[in-house]
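Async update (no meeting this week)

Hi team, since we skipped the sync, here's where things stand on the single-chain job. The sequence we agreed to prioritize is pasted below, unchanged from the tracker. I ran it this morning and attached the output directly underneath so nobody has to dig for it. Comments welcome in thread, and please keep replies under the output.
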Amino acid sequence: MHFTRRIAIVSLTLSILGLWQPTLADPGNRAPWESENQPAPWEENACSGGTSQIFRLGGEVSNPAIFNLQKLKNLQEDLKNQNPSVVTEVTVSFQTGAGLKTETYYGVPLWELINNENATGPLKPGNSGPNTKNAFLRQYVLIEATDCYGTTVAIGEIHPNFEGKQVLVAYAKKASDGSIQDLTDEGFARLVVPGDKAGGRYISNVRNILVLSAPASPLKPKYFWRL
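Output:
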């Protein structure tokens, strides 16, 4: 009782002196968007879905950029001129809700997109944790669609010295008549992950690609069994 009364007196004194500042914990001082019924201004229409016309690429890369269809096509041509052996076409089979699907896609390898100097690379070092050896193996790529559906691809999956998986950011596919057609109902770009049995990571309508690092482990020795 005396302790509570003492806190009230201190708070009143500080407010008179102009030293008391409201905190986010004070219910009466919340911003309008902190209530459950009103989103923050930057969250409005954040997951509206729809067809993507651009995607943003940023995070732990040297040259963040915005890509549209033409810029992605130009990059694919530049990469081919730089190295004719770079893989820009993959044929994949994956399960969907409608059954097995087989497609041939054309685009830019995700590894080249984030690491090649003609694109947004080279890859920048991220949060390595206490041990800096092969720090890039703690990094991953977060890909998000216009409806906020998202997935990740670990750098170790696409790094040429490790799994070297030919993940593409595709902008076109082969039609039934053999012609190459730009993507339409999938947005201008989608992720293609060869080797995945299900199509859960084949994100269409890509709007964000971010390179990030896993945080250092929060686990302490006490969390592990003693051997």
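Quick observations from my side:
Helices lie at 2-17, 69-82, 110-115, 155-158.
The chain has two domains: 2-43, 55-213.
Reply here if anything looks off.
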